[in-house]
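Contributing new records

If you add data, match the layout below exactly. Sequence lines come first and carry their own label; structure lines follow with theirs. Keep one chain per record. Anything else will be rejected by the validation script.
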Amino acid sequence: MSKRKSRSPLSVIAVAIVAALTVLVLFADAPVDPSGAERLFSVPKGASTRWIAQSLADESLVRSSLATFAYARALGKTLKAGTYRLSPALRAHEVLAVLEEGKQEEVRVTLAEGLSLSKVARRLESAGVIPAGDFVRAASDPVILREFGIPGKTAEGYLFPDTYFFPYGIAAEDAVRMMLRNFFARVPAIEGAPADPARLFEAVTLASVVEREYRLDDEAPLIASVFKNRISIGMGLQSCATVEYIITEIEGKEHPTRLTAKDLEIKSDYNTYLWAGLPPGPISNPGTVALRAVFTAPRTNYLYFRLVDPETGKHRFTRSLEEHVEAGRTYYLKRAAGD
């Protein structure tokens, strides 16, 4: 009859320790709250693994800061800075996997054509991306402007209208660079885009005016041709949009319901009723339609355009002041007659 060997006290203790550690690991890795809602969690740049583990525990996203720290260190995980959407329903190792992957939570912002720099800044602030003042300062940073070869005093005109996905906590400088990279990736591909930075700046400036004047896409090239014709004969652009820019962006006043004769006499380099040629810089951030209209403006003999249908935005284009005045007279007569 064989005798069973009895286990030594040490082996029993070892098994007990392994079992206890297994239970501890399983407990530490378990979700804090299987029905918990998602929340945002931010990791600042330079944060240590220990700090991150403790913050996760403080936010009730993991059960144990010590176990989470030990797990991350043992597996050599590199946890990335940023803002993430995490849930207490995740296991600790799943939380760490999200931070290691570095796929940050983003804010979706759509910026329409024709917004000025200040309006873009306010839109980003209202979306919770960046304080407006920080964005304006970054868009006026000479270092960034030189980096992208922009000869203006700000990035006005180059903040390409588009839908952007900004990581939470993005620096203002990085947001400006993101938008400028988008501009220089998209615009050079448009037919007729100038390669020379100075000529591109002039084209963007004119496109920013066209952007604020046209309402029908197919009329944008004709409006661009009118302005180019005026420039070629030394005539002022006479764009109401530039005067509105002075009032709202430079003087900081409310947008006027209509311009007065006094408004057209405002002393400013941007007043295209007083000075011939282009304004000193863009007055908005133009989109593809306005940019293409300027890059490929048709040859016409038009010098004037007048709105003849406020509902559709349709204009009548004319060659002389007499025709322009007559177009206006016809328009007002039709309105009086109820047509």
